[in-house]
């Protein structure tokens, strides 16, 4: 029996996609490959000249729209399924080429189509689209699915700091929110570690947020998460889907502070573990900080585990 061929096309996304790829690789009846959306340099002089004239005459930088990856994707040949994360990064021509190469082109939107308008323009290319955003699901007919728990560990009974947050590509508004919340924690003499990938502000250090200009990948983030008791997660505007921070809290048995009001509608929600705050006027009760984490029922956690996610999305028989 021939193997089902699956090709993933995705940004590296701080390493979260690698967990997905490795989970799929466990299935012996699948032939799984991945193409990361990144520019690794010109492979020959022709590509360099081609991009020079493209920028000169059309204003299009072929590096930035991943034009040179089309040949890599094509080299894998026909696929039973091509699964694309962040397809809004790709041109229409690239998406057309992907569709010709597979009998099933699927996308996963883990950014709101309200916030990234190109996601609305490319819906017609796909046989199916999954989304973690309930508003998009209702509006565009996507299939709802959350992110996943990619790793688990026991409770750390001796955390190095109480609160932890790490965020990438912060806009100025969210950065300001985190900084204000850090000041609130500092005034309460609570220990915390906040990290932000924000190259524009890399040289600024006001004693609240460690600003960095190089991405920290998830394998390193995991070690920082394990050292905390409570994770802090502030959503961007126009987004109600649950970020990976929520599933890290579940997997590593950490309490969570968030501004995502929709989280109370999920079956894992417990006010003893999850505190929803108004970021403009945050109030964190001492009882929430000092009380222990309440373990979530294993049957609930299994629904959000990566194994379950993969089996559902890729229609893998158990």
Descriptive notes:
The structure is a single chain. With 318 residues, the chain is an alpha/beta fold. The protein folds into 2 domains: 4-145, Rossmann fold (3-Layer(aba) Sandwich), CATH 3.40.50.11930; 161-297, 3-Layer(aba) Sandwich (Rossmann fold), CATH 3.40.50.2000. It is 32% helix and 19% strand. The chain has helices at 16-25, 45-57, 70-75, 92-100, 118-121, 134-140, 172-187, 218-226, 244-251, 286-290, 298-303, 306-313, and strands at residues 4-10, 30-36, 81-85, 105-109, 128-131, 143-144, 161-168, 192-197, 209-212, 228-233, 255-258, 274-276. It has a 6-stranded parallel beta sheet with strand order 2-1-3-4-5-6. It has a 6-stranded parallel beta sheet with strand order 9-8-7-10-11-12. Helix 5 links the parallel strand 4 (105-109) and strand 5 (128-131). The chain is globular and about 60 Å long. 31% of the residues are buried. The model has no long low-confidence stretch (mean pLDDT 88).
Instruction: Report the major sheet.
Output: 6 strands, parallel
Ends distance: 17 Å
Reading off the top of the CATH hierarchy, the class of the largest domain is best stated as Alpha Beta
Structural class label: alpha/beta
Please mark out the parts with pLDDT under 50 across 5 or more consecutive residues, or reply none.
Answer: none
The CATH topology assignment of the largest domain is: Rossmann fold
Shape: globular
* Domain tally: 2
The Cα radius of gyration reads: 21 Å
